[in-house]
Amino acid sequence: MSAGAGAVVAARGLMKAYAANGVPVRAVDGVDLVVEAGETVSVMGPSGCGKSTLLHLLGGLERPEAGEIVLDGRRVDGLSETAWAVLRRRTIGFVFQAFNLVDELTAVENVELPALLIGAPSRRARRRALELMERLGVADRAGHLPDRLSGGERQRVAVARALINDARLILADEPTGNLDSRATGEILRLFADLGRSGQSLLMVSHDARVASTADRLLTMRDGAIVGHTRLDAGSSSALFADMAGLAHKGGHGPRGGEH
Amino acid sequence: MRDPILALLAKSPAHGYEVRQRLVEALGPPGQALNPGQVYVTLSRLERAGLVRVGQVSQQRHPDKKMYELTAAGSERVAEWLADVSWSKVTPTDFHLKLVAAAATGLADPVALVDAQRHELLRQLSEVQALTLAEPADSAGGLLLEGAALRLAADVRWLELCEQRWLERLAQSDRAGGAGRSDRNEER
Fold it and tell me: Is A189 on the interface with B (CB under 8 A)?
């Protein structure tokens, strides 16, 4: 039996190599990974450590040379291209680093496309698309073609598209790379809702502020996972008293008395 | 400066001038600004606190030289300092010296120290971020939290850099002599 039978995605012994100037480089070198339902996991690491490749392997965009992937209880690493495409539509929402929007479709048409592809009624798809775009602050750009959008707007459209089918698993490659802090906050709030509705998120980010919002954080180096941090945001009062310079001042804390 | 000076003595007993030299080597340009008097004052404070003991080395043509050496309590204090991952009052200089001292004395693996510190900061950052996301987007408190998050994230990035450099250094010194990770730390 494979590891993580109850997990949304489980991988074992994943390997992927590239030839760089004729020299084989192991981009992903024996990675084991489990993401449970409702869990968010982030992957950090220096550029070139293999984190994007890992995401591509898990989303079926690239094939591993060795190892196995179990998605939603089903072994998928041997699937054909077509079978992967079908699976991806229903089970995975992917936020690409390069957004990959369809140039000929408007922003809202891009967002609703995955819903239409799995046969959702078009009115419902449109409504849900606009709802997501509203939350991400790009509803007013709905009728624009991608080349009329800024980088940050394209990114938010790409995130909305990844979320529209309420996929069990969202894979996101630098989902906030082009965004200011307000837009980043909106995306992170949406991501936090995913966990509450039982969806899972695996994201790659070089930004510690984004990565630290996950339940768990994995650190990659040279294609391998070398660190694992559980991030249970607990009580922070001590940290903040300290931060605000409120500690060690005459012994009473921030709630020492009424003003 | 108390803890770094103490830790630099863990490598071997030294006289005040050598302690200052070790600090200057570890710090680079900012170390030049280090006043020798500061080092001596710190050393005598450490002596009074029972963390350091002083021996005399007699010299023929010069006055006797004081050699400073860690006491058992001093060694214990160094071990505590190396293992401590609280961050709020730590400066980059402190942490940098901690890594240098760890490598020089062999008391800890600098990469493991960076790792432990990074995990701790990421935990703190996740707390800040959880509160930030719970705040309405434009609240005044949110702005303060964002400042805290940015500073922690910058520290995390610097720690990533520390890890990378120390991995390179240790790999280099392994190749150079096989003498082990903790043997020498100064190569410039």
Answer: yes
Cβ of B137 under 8 Å from any chain A Cβ? yes
Beta carbons of A233 and B126 less than 8 Å apart: yes
Q: Which residues of B fall within a CB distance of 8 Å from A46?
A: 160, 164
**Residue A4 falls inside a structural domain:** no
3-state secondary structure chain A: CCCCCCCCEEEEEEEEEEEECCEEEEEEEEEEEEECCCCEEEEECCCCCCHHHHHHHHCCCCCCCEEEEEECCEECCCCCHHHHHHHHHHHEEEECCCCCCCCCCCHHHHHHHHHHHCCCCHHHHHHHHHHHHHHCCCHHHCCCCHHHCCHHHHHHHHHHHHHCCCCCEEEEECCCCCCCHHHHHHHHHHHHHHHHCCCEEEEECCCHHHHCCCCEEEEEECCEEEEEEECCCCCCHHHHHHHCCCCCCCCCCCCCCCC
Query: Which residue, B83, B98, B126, sits at the end of a domain?
Result: B83
pLDDT at A236: 55
Q: Name the pTM for this structure.
A: 0.81
Nearest CA in chain B to A209: B153
Asked if B152's CB is within 8 angstroms of A233's CB, the reply is: no
- Domain residues for B161? 85-188
Chain segment A101-123, per-residue pLDDT in tens: 999 999 999 999 999 999 999 99
